[in-house]
Design goal:
Layout lengths: L2 H22 L10 E9 L5 H16 L4 E8 L5 E7 L2 H12 L2 H8 L1 E12 L10
Antiparallel strand pairs: 1-3, 1-4, 2-3
Helix pairs in contact: 2-4
């Protein structure tokens, strides 16, 4: 898949998620700056999709208990890459949660599925949320 299509798919996923999240809550998701944690990766050879999904769902409940957690979106591209997007109130809380979950056994099992050679990790700061606050 070309880079343009990948960007469009990621944009659509993030846009859809932001809109659906704001409809579920009276407050808009991005009324103020939000930190988005984005991890794109492949699993190691031999990891079964269904097993990885079960682990991902389990750690969602763990992440939701972390201070600063807003929401999580977990998806997969047609070519098998996983895209894990987590929204946090600020960078300090996101980084703190990352340290905490490293030592939780259920999270360690999830992380052990990831092929570290094929992983991209980044934090982004929301600049605006279209159409909500394009000022």
């Amino acid at each position: 898949m070309c880079l343009f299509k990948k960007c469009i798919l990621l944009f659509m996923a993030v846009s859809f998620f932001g809109c659906s999240y704001s409809h579920q809550n009276k407050e808009r998701a991005f009324d103020k700056t939000v930190i988005t944690e984005i991890v794109i990766y492949r699993t190691k050879v031999g990891v079964q999709r269904i097993d990885h999904l079960k682990k991902a769902k389990l750690i969602s409940t763990i992440l939701a208990k972390q201070d600063g957690f807003i929401a999580r979106q977990f998806s997969q591209t047609p070519d098998g890459k996983w895209v894990d997007i987590i929204y946090w109130k600020n960078l300090d809380l996101a980084e703190n949660a990352a340290e905490i979950v490293k030592s939780i056994p259920e999270c360690e099992l999830f992380f052990s599925d990831i092929d570290q050679k094929h992983m991209e990790f980044m934090y982004t700061e929301t600049v605006f949320d279209y159409p909500h606050n394009l000022e």
